[in-house]
Amino acid sequence: MKKFAYGLLTGVVITIFSPVFEALSELALNWIEVLKVPAIKKTVQGNKEIQDIQCETENQGGAEAIGFHYTPQEDEYYDDDEYEDE
Fold first, then answer.
1. What are the structural domain ranges in the chain?
2. pTM for this prediction
3. pLDDT tens for the chain, residues 1 to 86
4. How far is the CA of 51 from the CAs of 6, 41, 45, in angstroms?
């Protein structure tokens, strides 16, 4: 009978304190997210600087090679062309 009483008491205690443990774990995870903010800000700042540098280099010159001219073919081929002859 003592084991039953201890088991029942343990179940009640776990049931009562389970939301408390969940709230504490969420609080800890939120603090971890807050601690990650400075690193994210540095990353965003670095990405912005890289994007600005890339925009400057793209505006300075064209992407064409000297003496190269690309003329795409006008003909378009479709998979249905194979079956039209039949």
1. 30-59
2. 0.46
3. 888 888 999 999 889 899 999 999 999 999 999 999 999 999 999 999 999 888 877 665 555 566 666 666 666 666 665 555 55
4. 64, 15, 10
